[in-house]
Write a structure and sequence with these properties.
The chain has 285 residues and is an alpha+beta fold. The protein has two domains: 8-104, 2-Layer Sandwich (Phosphorylase Kinase, domain 1); 117-279, Aminoglycoside phosphotransferase (APH), C-terminal lobe (Aminoglycoside 3'-phosphotransferase, Chain: A, domain 2), CATH 3.90.1200. It is built from nine helices and nine strands. The protein has helices spanning 8-18, 59-68, 117-132, 153-160, 198-212, 215-229, 236-247, 255-260, 268-279; strands at residues 23-28, 36-42, 47-52, 80-84, 100-104, 166-168, 177-180, 183-187, 194-196. Strand 7 (177-180) and strand 8 (183-187) form a beta hairpin. Helix 3 (117-132) packs antiparallel against helix 5 and helix 4 runs antiparallel to helix 7.
Length: 285
Amino acid sequence: MSSVTPSPVALVWAARELGVSELHWVRTLPGGTHATTTVVGASDGTEFVLRQFPPGDDAVRREIRVLAGLDDLGVLAPKLLAADPDGTVHPNDTGNGCPLIVTTLLPGQASITPTDPQDFARQLGQTLACIHSLVVDPVLPDLFTEPAIDSPLHSVWRELNDEPRVLTHNDFWSGNTVWQRGNLTGIVDWSGAGLAPRGYDLAWCRQDLVFLYNVTVAEEFTRSYNEAFGSPTPDVARWDYFAALKAYPRVETWAPNYTELGRADLDGAGLRRRLTEWMATLPGH
């Protein structure tokens, strides 16, 4: 993983917004394919997260809006401390601004190599149920929109589209969670959040757990989620198929996220093989 460091301009802005004398780069967090995410530190040892988005990227505004509504998650969600959604303090060579946000740093680190995968799955399920139980902000975009009519996703979308919407993370996989001493301590990267049926996030994480482990672990995640939410998730098999179809054209591009977090076996070829095997078990394939 390359150690991308924030620019001096971004560090000066963040320090001013936080009311500290100066900030320095501490480390770059792994797994980021959208915003560049770094840990920055103050002279007293306090650490924060600085996220820099591509110029003109509206995802930063969505993340700001979502983070403002996550108080009921308590310590499981980062707190927004400062934001420059227009990139006014960090223009690039073309004059377009790079949006910035600063949040609290959640304790722990990303981990996809737990000693107890079943407990790992249970905690993921319980946490996702908490997210889906939060009050929905109706301003957030609907993520489960109609695909092109000639897309293989379209027929599955028609089957599932009438299901109620909940707050949806939109990339709920184990690499976007933070762990400390075997306990899940937070969920990060809310820039893509919006509204969708429960199965949207659920199937995405089930697929990730199949890649990492097996169907048994994915089923434990689902059992824990349903128990915590209070009702079974409808049409799980169809949601699995929808998630697999979404992954199919691009699954190899996810390899750096897995290999950086310790799963060297999940390179492009490994992910393609696991997805193909998973899809072969799904109804409709």
